[in-house]
Sequence to fold (257 residues):
Amino acid sequence: MNTLTAPVSAAHLNYLLRIADSSLILGHRLSEWCGHGPVIEEDIALTNVALDLIGQARALYTHAGASEGRDRDEDVFAFNRPQEEFCNVSMVELPNGDYACTIVRNFLFTAFQRELWVALHSSPDAALAQIAAKSVKETRYHVQHASDWTVRMGDGTDESHARMQRALDYLWPYTAEFFSASLDDGEIAMSGIGPVWSTLETAWRNAVLPLLDVATLQIPQRTAFVSRGKEGMHGEHMRTLLSEMQFLQRAHPNCKW
Fold:
């Protein structure tokens, strides 16, 4: 496995940040459940998932900073960038909604993350491959946790089933962005740094669709809608999220603890 030297290409850096930003923003959203979970065990479980995701983001930001050679660390990437520089997928920035919405989002997105981390095991970027090796272990638990609850509530009471179906109807269109084309796909494919995300769709669907069938949930009809968070085009919820997450650094720039 080769170790890549800094500075990396813009496409390589954007690829790292796309993964890191998605993990960070979902981790922040899940942290909002801390102290508000439906039962204490789930309060702790979601907090642990959030910590795993933020840990993944930290590792990727540190690697990105070292690779670009501009002395940016994890805190700069997380707290000192404006909204338009974040390239997370739009699904992760949506408000949590009820517990059903949170579970469906976790299932859909972490099932995608699992396929991505597995594919990144063979990346020629040694640091990225190492991050993937650790992250896939965590993500397998995230998928299992969300899968268990998806079946439990989807095939549960009339009320829980209705809530899960509403959540799936709302979130499903956002999954199209996971596999939509990005401007740097050609360079990523040529470099072999990681998979072009569109190549993961078949494996993702093979994992997701059977589970949703067991949960007695109906897949919504495909629409023309494709969100564009990967391109820095975010909805109104992202601004509120960042104003809260970045408040301390904005109030006290470059503060140290």
